[in-house]
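seq/struct pair 1
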Amino acid sequence: MNADLYFWLAGCAALLVGLSKGGLPAVGMLAVPVLSLLMSPVKAAVLLLPIFVISDVVGIWLYRRDYSAANLRILIPAGVFGVLVGWLTASLVSDMAITFLIGVVGVAFCLNVWLRKQDNAPAQPADTVKGWFWGSLAGFTSFISHAGAPPFQVYMLPQKLPKTEFAGTATIVFAVINAAKILPYQNLRPYSGETLWSAAVLIPFALIGTVCGAYLTRRMADVWFYRIVQISLFAVSLKLIFDALQSYLGLT
């Protein structure tokens, strides 16, 4: 493998992680596909977890005053529960089926919003039952492949929160979820010194991305922020469906 190619592609993946932690939605989910150009998706997910965790620390500090407490009370325990379910069922659940399902849900949600023109619909409040369902699913899919954004966004977008509150809530929820994944990942896919060193080299990219993501989020108009959220969700969901079908057809 060309060392320069590895460095820049891996750096790009880390930058995407940082941008998502800074508040730009869904782009972090592109990190695993980018790294999959160099290594297996499983190895890519393992390598990226330390980078997610470090970026989370910076993201929490940047959004320490911007979050929805009502949603945190629901989504944090639900997300941790989803991680636990993912850990306990790791050998039983088909990654391909879950990836396909999440992709379909994301695409269906976006099409429903766009075709029914729900931009004028009244904002919905935080809901315990819906929050536990989507939060648990976010934790579960995040455990499988760092793909927790679509379920989170399906639950959060109808609430029409201020963009910094939306971004801060996402940052804090996934910071807790990622911290909860450390022990299960070590148990299922033990980290080597080489893996940790590879992750450490990429941290500067992630930190730069986190700061840039927060800067752009705070200066972006609300209407454009939520358009980017929806477009990103749609694009990533299509990518998940494509990946699942590719795996099913044996093309990977």
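seq/struct pair 2
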Amino acid sequence: MASAPPRDQMWIFAYGSLIWNPCFDHVERRTGIVRGWHRSFCLGWDRWFRGSEKWPGLMLALDQGGQCNGIVFRLPADGIEENLLELARREIRLIPHSFPARWINVSTGEGSVRALTFAMDRTAPGYVGRLSPAEVADALAMAVGQFGSMAEYLRNTVVQLEELGLRDRNLWRLQAMVAERIERAVERRASSDRRSP
């Protein structure tokens, strides 16, 4: 926080569930683009929130390279500490943390802002960014945990981005792959049930 901007310019960049389920108060929000990072299901393996021991899930993080569109939220100047604490409680569950907070520059239609976000540490044991799209889709189609399914998490993110006029073609492709896997699993179960006495 030593390099934090002035209190009235404290922004948070959201690229996943914080877009559709922010855990902090805000006084302004804008769409924006981050260059040098991209949205990726590269944080694994979740065995509680949206996964289990049998079917662990993957979570979104910012990974190096490319670009990412999302939302920047400006926190109220008189509520910085409590809102950052709430954000930390939600996002930082383990120490050391696989995707630590960092300052990034976000380009918005109203100019560039410096924002706090969570980006993947590729040296962390939780980094699984080398999985193929098929392996990611396999995991997302099956994983369910205390907070719901990974398929729902993916869909919520895609829907919210679309409503904001933001398109992430990789997430769209991944969503189609996950839907195909779920449909095949339902068909197999229905076929098995018909064969049962």
